[in-house]
Amino acid sequence: MSRSRARFDTAWQAALDHARQAASQFGMDIVVTRDVLGRSCILIDDRGCPLAHDDPTVVALRDAFTAATRPFTGLEPLLFGDKLFAPELYFDAEERVPVSPRQGSAGSVHSLERTVIGSDWARSVPTPSDGAPGRRDRRVALYGFKGGVGRTTATAVLARYLAGTGRCVLVVDLDLESPGVSNLLEDPAGIPRHGIVDHLIEGGVGNADGLELVARSSALPVKGNGEVWLAPAGGRPLERNGEPYDYLAKLNRIYSDLAGLNPGDRERPFAARLEEAIAACEDQVTELSRPPDVVLLDSRAGMHDIAAVTLTHLSGLALLFAVDNPSTWEGYKMLFTQWQRRPVLARELRERLRIVAAMFHSAGDAKRLPALIDRAQTLFASTLYDQLDTDEEGADDEGDELYHPPLEDDAAPHAAIPILFGNDLVGLDPLRSRDWPELPFVDAAYRTFTTTVERLLLPPHPAPESS
To answer: What sequence ranges are listed for the domain CobQ/CobB/MinD/ParA nucleotide binding (predicted)?
Structure first.
């Protein structure tokens, strides 16, 4: 019989409860800290009246605290102000949050969060040595440097279209700071118990087994044998038993690179942990139904760690949403320039990218799309494409063919895929009109986008042979 282990939220509640107990028992002020992994420990301010560490009451508190918070227990469950090198960094810290005030003979309780945020734009992962398609090759990232360009709606439309071709589609909501695609794919009651943030938190302490990460979409109409599955950013709290669910506390500590779980283990960067979370979602869909034919990663906008990892590590195809304005092109230039400084990474990425002309107003001006494509080609040519000299003959010094697609190349990264925009889309409320993907003006707006993306994908997994 396996030993019960606390989840992130319940472990923190247990830590606070034991801190209140300690403040009452010892009559001393308490600070409860929580590190980047969510591991907590109790600091007892015994300056001026040191506690004996082998006192039965202290030992009992340490044992009870450890049992209630494992695996989210700090390396030192109890720390004592009398022994700390700089106790004022904890007991006088301005960022402390009051939990309970001094009352009678009981001391006060404060919480103190310790979190770290990292960055992952310049890292890449090796491709499979055998050249066989891997998980990444079936993943499509949908990313926009600027928000508000219709990326999430396009994700839902694309998921439904691909499912309509008989594919099994998994949509992963990676816009963790502003989740949205879940509302287009599933009613709140159908959201799974856990989300991507839960796997990142629980996996950080080796506690990810048994998480419920995916649910089959019941809100998106799909005909035929296709399927749409959702892996949300966050899970659904269990309302009946009042179990807590603190999404923000989890979000604040997921991005850092972590040390190994055991001494001597290799470092676990954020990119690897996010890969593990997505792979776990894919595995659950496989167990519940069949292997996903395509995985849509709805990334957040801007220069963010989620976007960095999604584009450089997780996806085989990256759709870059763009509107034709200076801020969009300056933003993508910043991003491309980062990659340009690392030639190996640039060569790996550039042929996996494709511009999407988002919310494109085509009516009345036939020159708009060619103008956008021209600006996109200029950007790629000055950053990620190989540089052409006037006496260039099409190969570099090592004899390799240069990669510099011309403007008219319809298969090049700069060849923008248009999503049309109409006034009818402005008032569309997907939550009230569940048949919205079937509306004629939605089909007209997204038809070129969906059919073009389909041609860029690997074919579906072969159907299993009947016994």
So the answer is: 141-270
